[in-house]
């Protein structure tokens, strides 16, 4: 189902594409709660994502990610959710998201993403340096390009991105 009848909006895309920033603004504009999947994982695990990766491994993180996503999807809540950059690489997560709402995919040029990750001090264990980040983007490029409703955030503000998302949502026949 690719509409907003149930009010679920999923913001996907690579790290630093603007998912959390835009998601918060969109949720406010639509009067919906906002959730960030990485934040939910940290709250559920009582540790940062970096600690999860250093204490366990990526496989454990992905398990926790799927668990947090499925837990949120089991509620009756309508929301905007910023997904982690690799969340939809898991086919079961992708199917669950597609079946429960609309995916908006934010993208940006490699140069812009590199600049943004250099500015942030976030927990990005799979992109700890420029080379690792570029390799991550290259490895996931086909995946990101396969996701629907892509918006390039390279030269636009988060507010302009929200306007583009609203246009997609209203064009999708949603009831916002």
- Rounded mean pLDDT is 89
As a percent range, the share of helical residues equals 40-55%
- CATH domain class: Alpha Beta
DSSP strand tally: 5
Head-to-tail CA distance between termini: 16 Å
CATH superfamily descriptor: P-loop containing nucleotide triphosphate hydrolases
Task: Walk me through the topology.
Layout: E1 8-12, H1 19-30, E2 34-36, H2 37-45, H3 49-55, H4 58-73, E3 79-82, H5 91-100, E4 102-107, H6 110-119, H7 130-146, E5 150-152, H8 158-171
Parallel strand pairs: 1-3, 1-4, 2-3, 4-5
Report on the architecture of this protein:
With 176 residues, this protein is α/β, with parallel strands linked by helices. The chain has one domain (8-171): P-loop containing nucleotide triphosphate hydrolases (Rossmann fold, 3-Layer(aba) Sandwich). The chain is 54% helix and 12% strand. It contains eight helices and five strands, in the order E-H-E-H-H-H-E-H-E-H-H-E-H. The protein has helices at residues 19-30, 37-45, 49-55, 58-73, 91-100, 110-119, 130-146, 158-171, and strands spanning 8-12, 34-36, 79-82, 102-107, 150-152. A five-stranded parallel β-sheet has the order 2-3-1-4-5, with helices on both faces. It starts with 7 loop residues before the first strand and ends in a 5-residue tail after the last helix. The mean pLDDT is 89.
């Amino acid at each position: 189902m690719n509409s907003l009848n149930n009010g679920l909006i999923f913001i996907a895309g690579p790290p630093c594409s603007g998912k959390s920033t835009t998601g918060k603004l969109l949720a406010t504009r639509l009067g919906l709660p906002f959730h960030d999947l990485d934040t939910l994982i940290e709250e559920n695990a009582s540790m940062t994502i970096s600690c999860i990766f250093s204490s366990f491994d990526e496989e454990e993180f992905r398990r926790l990610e799927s668990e947090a996503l499925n837990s949120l999807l089991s509620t009756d809540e309508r929301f905007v959710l910023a997904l982690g950059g690799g969340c939809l690489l898991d086919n079961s997560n992708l199917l669950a998201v597609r079946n429960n709402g609309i995916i908006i995919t934010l993208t940006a040029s490699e140069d812009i993403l590199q600049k943004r990750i250099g500015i942030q001090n976030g927990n990005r264990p799979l992109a700890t340096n420029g080379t690792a980040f570029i390799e991550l983007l290259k490895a996931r490029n086909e995946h990101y390009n396969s996701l629907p409703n892509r918006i390039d955030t390279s030269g636009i503000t988060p507010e302009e991105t929200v306007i583009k998302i609203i246009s997609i949502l209203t064009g999708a026949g949603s009831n916002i």
